[in-house]
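The methods section describes the discrete structure representation at length, but only in general terms. What matters is that the chain and its backbone geometry are given together, residue for residue. For illustration, here is how one protein appears when written out as sequence plus structure tokens:
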Amino acid sequence: MHSIKELLKFIGRSAKRIAVLVVGLALVALGLVMLVVPGPGLVVIILGLVVLATEFAWAEVMLDKAKDTAKQAGGAAKKGLSRFRRQKPEPAGLPEPEPEPELER
């Protein structure tokens, strides 16, 4: 037979896991909705994974994959930005203004 102390410890641990699961999944679901409607969807999804990763190994694996993808996207964005900065600006296509004639005195 288990002692009351062990039973309370088990209930507390299970309650924490359930609370983390509910809050984490709610944040991920809210983030998915924000991908369609205005809002910081990706940030909220990552936040949900952070909450879930405190208790679940599968969420930590997903969080690590998201971090790797973000690093790759950041590198690609920096590469594209440096390429954009190196390009010479093309003329806007506007005609040069004509100089004003000088007045004779």
Q: What stands out?
A: The chain has a mean pLDDT of 83.
